[in-house]
Structures are given as C-alpha cells and as structure tokens.
Design a protein that fits this description.
With about 220 residues, this protein is α+β, with helices and mostly antiparallel strands. It is about 35% helix and about 30% strand. Helix 1 crosses helix 6 and helix 4 crosses helix 6.
Length: about 220
Amino acid sequence: MKNLNTVTAYLARVSKCIDEHGWVSRGAAYKSDDKTATADCALEADLGDLSADNLNDAEDAILWASTKAADFDNLNDYEAKAVASVLTVNPRSRTWELRDSINPRSIGYAASIVTVARREKARAASAAKFASLKGGYLGNVGEKFATTNATLIEVQHMARWDCHLHKFATDTGNILTWMTKRRVGDVNDRLLRLSGTVKGHRVWNGNEETQITRCKYIAG
C-alpha cells in the first residue's frame, strides 16, 4: 500500500468500517449496548487490508472538504467543524492544508465526511443514470396500469421504515417507484411484466416519477 497521510488513512478506515458494519453515529452508539460508533471503530488496530474503494472514499471525502474550504466563511456550523477536522483553513487567502492528524475530539466530524461524500457521489451518479429517462408520468392517480420490460435501476433500503424503495425504468422512459417490505430483485434485473395501481406523481431531483402500489410482476 502506498504511504498515506494519517488523515487519509483514518478516513479510509472509516470507509472500511461502513462497508462492514454500516454507519453508526456516536449518538446512536451511546444509546446502544452493542454498537460501536464508526468514528471509534476506525481507530481499532486490526481492520485488515484497505481496498482501493476505501482509499477512493478517503480521497473523495478530502475533496469534499477542500471544495467547502474555498467558501469557509459561509459554511453552516456542521460544515465548518467537519472541514476543520481534517483541514487547516486560512479563510483570508482561501487556502488549506491537510492536517497531520485528527484531534480526538473531532473524529466524529471527520468520520461523517466519508458518508457525506459517499452520498453526494451516489446522488450525482443517480442523476446521470436518470438523465435520459424523460418519459413523463405513467397513467393517472388511482388508475390501474400494466407495463412490459421494466428494468430495476435502483434499490434503496429505507432503514427508518425497514423497507425497500425500488426504481424501475420502462422502455418508454418512465420512472416507476415502488416501496415494499421485501426486496424485489437486484439492479439491472428485468421484469417481463409489472402491473398495479398508480399511487401518485412526484418530481424528484428534476425527474418525473410515478409512484406505484399493490403490484404484481413476472420476473425475466
């Protein structure tokens, strides 16, 4: 492995902890008897080898911080503390340097940068994925619908409700969203037929989506 700055190494270890245990805030860990905060997990000695993706996550996190540092005076309280946890910032000259180490009191902020950068990267990738889907809404609210050849393009586990949000693309460019308790499939799976009821219409990240419910499908 290449020689890493201490901050970069720590952020890469945060990424590995998220991969293996999911993100656990310090507040959530404090309220739990069996969970370790991700910020503290990354300090443990034996985490094994870091992957290329872990190192990329660390670099993305530092890039996020450095981009924010350019407008440091206008950051909100969280952003300012998160940026300052990994960078030494000179607001007057708008310059910054990567810190040699992270203050133990700031590791919660530093660790959270990895999740923020991951989320923004995923949001950008999702926007690019949906950019070509301009089919508009499918059907009217309350009406039955049926479509063929729907491709699953995104699945999100909604931890708050313990369910899965599926997003499908039709051959005519419609985006369909379906919330279910059970995961229907994996990204790029195709359904030969998908039918149900139109629950609603919404615009999300600039894209027109049709929300569906009470669905039946035939897998490809």
